[in-house]
Amino acid sequence: MNDYRERVGEVCKFIDAHLDHKLSLDQLAELSHFSKYHFSRIFASVTGDTPFAYITKQRLARAAGCLLETDKSVLEIALLCGFESASNFNAAFKKHFGQTPTGMREQTRQDRNISLSDRNPGEAGQTPTLYDQTVKHSFLRRVWQMQATIEELPLLEVAYVRHVGSYLETYRAWAQLGKWAAQHRLFPPEQSFIGISLDDPAVTEEEECRYDACVTVPNTLSRADAPQEIRFQTLPGGLYAKFYFYDTPDKLALLYQSIFGNWLPDSAYDPDDRYCLEFSMNDPAQDPQGKAKVDLYIPIRTRT
């Protein structure tokens, strides 16, 4: 865990030193030596915030200090702290602190004893990290105690339907794919149904999140007559850590948190730059308790 904390810590130091610069996810991921695809989850598991949420909080903390300790204008402070405009700064500031920058400055001048300690996210030790908070979660404790299986997967040829939008509405893609798969008699156990979340909803707008509902296909399947919504791709093989999940679908996000926040840091592996694969082993709608049975494959590489 220390290695992951140190790498994320270096990113936090870089952010803190460059709050007045434009910071990109690609830049921060490269600095951490994690892939962009996995970086946000790892960062959030250590700090409790997504990279962009952390950046915003740190900028607001610096801005609050400038408001109280200097006579700079609101616009000057906004630009100094990395905001593109005074209006964006005002909106973010009011949302976080519950008052406008000008309002806070005036109130503070009236009472210099005002304390921001309960609201200042920039002070170390004020807020427990997600890692610390979730230790108390019984579901995650069970996850942490289980052992992953390390497996090598071959290349997988799949047909898929892409969904763009909320991950809560992926059933539409599955319905389209399921109808086509049934017509071609593509059923388990000979074939596997695999879900792939291509974006992290913590850093991607909900309406822009991409998800592929996939089914493996035999080499003998003709692709010529496939309808427009059915596409084909090859999923890369390689080394994966396999985790067994059986719970309500909303708990799957907690499994990801546990893996990236606890299992991976304590393992001998780093996440590899491939997509996580969710092998669907049942239909939650047919389960008596509405639970999903998923074999979750996390791409890994040996840590050097």
From TrEMBL:
A GO molecular-function descriptor: DNA-binding transcription factor activity
InterPro entries for this protein: AraC_E-bd (IPR010499), GyrI-like (IPR029442), Homeodomain-like_sf (IPR009057), HTH_AraC (IPR018060), HTH_AraC-typ_CS (IPR018062), Reg_factor_effector_dom_sf (IPR011256), SmbC-like (IPR050908), Tscrpt_reg_AraC-type_HTH (IPR020449)
Signal peptide (UniProt feature, chain positions): none
Residues covered by region (Disordered): 100-129
Sorted UniProt keywords: DNA-binding, Transcription, Transcription regulation
Domain HTH araC/xylS-type, residue spans: 9-107
Keyword Zinc included in the entry's annotation: no
Source taxon at top rank: Bacteria
Name this protein carries in UniProt: AraC family transcriptional regulator
Gene source species: Paenibacillus mellifer
